[in-house]
């Protein structure tokens, strides 16, 4: 049975992916900062599979290394890495951007993804096997007004995904990105710093993707035969045609 490590498993796409993987009896290493949610996941999935939780902030290099090195022996051979932890912070024109928001997006979405990968990849290289899924975004394919630094962070994920695939090709490690459009999760609540009304408005007037839609696709991707690597997927709600074209019913 495969072992999967999911970052950002406490909410949204990561949590839904954990649910799909648990139903498929993948062994799970679930990561996030919110300890009580990790405890809930442990209780929920333990009847289905082996679950281990890791509580760390992906921005903290030492904490990432310590947490991943502490993984129990029977789970150390990670077959699947889902680099999912991330968020947008703010939606401001560049001239009004908050430097702390910029730091958060670059430190979490880009550097955090790298820190986790740095700890997991050597084992995959040694075993000549593994599958890495990087969660990018339509914001990594297009830039939209006020998206500036979030878009930059997801364009970086796109580049890292391509670079990882090239460098790890010789070891038989599969690397691919899933790039969603609008998915109704806690994403907008984080982006708008707890402003629920503004966050809910993002998903009103059309049918956004659900976290489960992306989890279903991730599960499909990681269950293909070994010779199949789904390298790069853009997944949009039907109402969305691009980063800026969204058909809302008013
Ligand atoms: P959520 O806000 O629901 O989930 C984000 C997850 O990331 C949480 O589990 C959170 O856990 C974790 N996380 C955030 N910051 C940190 C940190 N510093 N250290 C460790 N974990 C962290 O959003 P989504 O599920 O929507 O987002 C998941 C991924 O999907 C992100 O990379 C996002 O950019 C991407 N995405 C989302 C889209 C959307 O429309 N929702 C569209 C395209 C891409 P905790 O707070 O417990 O640490
Ligand atoms: C999340 C989707 O359009 O808010 O990456 O950037 S969007």
The SSE string, one letter per element, is EHEHEHEHEHEEHHEHE
Number of helices, counting only DSSP H or I runs of 4 residues or more: 8
Strand-pairing-aware structural class: alpha/beta
Cα gyration radius (Å)? 17 Å
The low-pLDDT segments are: none
How much of the residues is beta strand, in percent?
15-25%
The CATH class turns out to be: Alpha Beta
Cofactors, ions, other ligands: NADPH dihydro-nicotinamide-adenine-dinucleotide phosphate, 2-hydroxyethylsulfonic acid
What does this structure look like?
The chain is of the alpha/beta class and 250 residues long. The protein has one domain (3-235): NAD(P)-binding Rossmann-like Domain (Rossmann fold), CATH 3.40.50. It contains eight helices and nine strands. It has helices spanning 12-23, 35-45, 61-69, 99-127, 148-168, 187-191, 196-202, 211-222, and strands spanning 3-6, 27-32, 51-55, 80-83, 131-135, 174-180, 183-184, 209-210, 232-235. The strands form two sheets. The chain has a seven-stranded parallel sheet, with helices on both faces. The chain has a two-stranded parallel ribbon with strand order 7-8. The radius of gyration is 17 Å and the shape is globular. The N and C termini lie far apart (48 Å). NADPH dihydro-nicotinamide-adenine-dinucleotide phosphate (NDP) binds next to α1, α4 and α6. InterPro entries: NAD(P)-bd_dom_sf, Sc_DH/Rdtase_CS, SDR_fam. Pfam families: adh_short.
């Amino acid at each position: 049975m495969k072992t999967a490590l999911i970052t950002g498993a406490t909410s949204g796409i990561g949590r839904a992916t954990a649910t799909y993987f648990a139903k498929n009896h993948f062994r799970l290493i679930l990561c996030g900062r919110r300890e009580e949610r990790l405890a809930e996941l442990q209780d929920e999935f333990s009847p289905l599979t082996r679950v281990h939780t890791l509580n760390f902030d992906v921005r903290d290099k030492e904490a990432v290394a310590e947490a991943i090195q502490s993984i129990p022996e029977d789970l150390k051979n990670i077959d699947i890495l889902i680099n999912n932890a991330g968020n947008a912070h703010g939606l401001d024109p560049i001239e009004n951007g908050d430097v702390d928001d910029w730091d958060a997006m670059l430190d979490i979405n880009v550097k955090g993804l790298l820190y986790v990968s740095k700890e997991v990849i050597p084992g995959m290289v040694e075993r000549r096997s593994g599958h890495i899924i990087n969660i990018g975004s339509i914001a990594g394919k297009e830039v939209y007004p006020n998206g500036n630094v979030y878009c930059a962070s997801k364009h970086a994920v796109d580049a890292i995904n391509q670079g990882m695939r090239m460098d790890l090709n010789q070891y038989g490690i599969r690397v691919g990105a899933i790039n969603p459009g609008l998915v109704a999760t806690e994403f907008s609540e984080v982006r708008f710093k707890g402003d629920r009304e503004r966050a809910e408005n993002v998903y009103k007037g059309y049918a956004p993707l659900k976290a489960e839609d992306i989890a279903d696709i991730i599960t499909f991707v990681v269950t293909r035969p070994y010779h199949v690597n789904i390298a790069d997927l853009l997944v949009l709600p039907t109402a969305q045609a691009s980063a800026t074209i969204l058909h809302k019913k008013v």
